[in-house]
Amino acid sequence: MKAKVIVMPKQSVLDPQGVAVRDAMHHHGLPQVKSVRIGKFMEIEVEGADEAKLHEICRDLLSNPVIEDYRLELQ
Amino acid sequence: MKAKVIVMPKQSVLDPQGVAVRDAMHHHGLPQVKSVRIGKFMEIEVEGADEAKLHEICRDLLSNPVIEDYRLELQ
């Protein structure tokens, strides 16, 4: 089974890395870019784990719930 | 328009961050995890840019083609 986890900074949290990339894209000839937000993408190969346990791991290990949201997709 | 860019280490490239997270998941009671690979996820808000230009930026700015692959999704 494959699990994908996306961890993004919360909307209310500043993302200086995203701002820097947006400015760099402007300098590279893409002034149409309005905003960039940067997070982490994890591809997890797992054999028959239960979803509740994976959510627990996402919360406790893979993200910082104070400043980040996560999304778990199972395939 | 929204663009999503996923940048992952190439399959042939070691991903020590992924290995560390896999080991941590084992210690947190998920020994079923076989592998973890970690990349970047970028959400880009852009007004009417052409796709070719976005691919150019992905190649030149957002990823390192020597060790990373990128995937661009337009919505």
Describe this protein's structure.
2 copies of one chain form a homodimer. Chain A is built from 2 helices and 3 strands. Chain A is an alpha+beta fold and 75 residues long. In chain A, strands 2-1-3 form a 3-stranded antiparallel beta sheet. Chain A is elongated. Chains A and B meet through strand 1, helix 1, strand 2 and helix 2 of A and strand 1, helix 1, strand 2 and helix 2 of B.
Which SSEs are present, and which pair or pack?
Two copies of one chain form a homodimer.
Chain A: E1 2-9, H1 16-27, E2 33-46, H2 51-62, E3 68-74
Antiparallel strand pairs in A: 1-2, 1-3
At a glance:
2 copies of one chain form a homodimer. Chain A has helices at 16-27, 51-62; strands spanning 2-9, 33-46, 68-74.
